[in-house]
Hints:
This protein is 40% helix and 20% strand. It is an alpha/beta fold. It is elongated.
Amino acid sequence: MTDVNQVIQHARRQLLDAGIDSAKAEADIIVAHVLEIGRGKLGILQALGKDLSSQSESRVTELVEGRAARTPLQYLTGTAGFYGLDVQVEPGVFIPRVETEILVETTLQHFDNAVGPLRVLDLCTGTGAIAAALADQLQQRDVPVALWAVDVDAAAVDLARRNTAPYKVTVLCADATESDSVLAAAPELETLLGAFDAVVTNPPYIPTETPVTQPEAGFDPQRALYGGSTDGTGIPRAIADQALRWLAPGGFFIMEHDHTHAGELAAALESHDGWRNVATVQDLTQTNRFVTAIRTDALQPTPKTT
Ligand SMILES: C[S@@+](CC[C@H](N)C(=O)[O-])C[C@H]1O[C@@H](n2cnc3c(N)ncnc32)[C@H](O)[C@@H]1O
């Protein structure tokens, strides 16, 4: 048995020595996670100088060692906070990032006066965080919504199904750059070509030769990171083309992108008569991070090609 304060101090030191900037907060999160309590209650245990069982102490040591080896904290605790939800995460599936919350926020702003029912498609869904957050927020506003979420990776699909289980979300395993692949997974969607109110996406977008510098990002699956072409815009461009097939005239598109792609992706959408009101949206660090556009009614919904 050891005093909880000693355990926390030791954890903080180990994390600081490993170069973790937020060592103090992360040590608290790890201990609270092991004790299965919130951080508020942890403060009370600290004030009372409570002891930790040797079993809990060993578990803390194990997780701190994992974190010191730069395993992302979310993989160790099994959850990531995203737009007010605790999203389950697992090694092998991309951890949702805080900047992507702006994508959710911007989509909700677009739907400010919507009464529904809405149809929304989340391409490259990963954990399903975006779909779950949109479903949760629209449900709170009493706006009926049906969502479909697509990922090519079976582990992501499995996790996304669990994260979106409380909501009306259909998760499909398919290639989001090919609407025919999505239709093969869900033939009933053929009647919804050209009928979606929004397509939202955070696809892989890193240029192929860009090394990932953040140690934690080394744990992300490669397929979640690299954009499928030397400059990284291969998958994002293909997704934007597919969005034209799915969206109804007046439908909303938002895509997260690499900060270096802002100008060229906005220009590509602007030069296409399928899009209007093309705009760039910044993330919380004032970095150009998202492109938004509205599908014009110049194009008729594209029929299925095969
Ligand atoms: C950057 S992660 C984003 C995940 C999630 N949208 C988020 O914001 O947390 C990109 C995701 O796209 C998936 N992916 C990569 N290529 C894909 C493709 N061609 N079709 C569908 N999903 C794809 C990866 O498996 C990964 O889950």
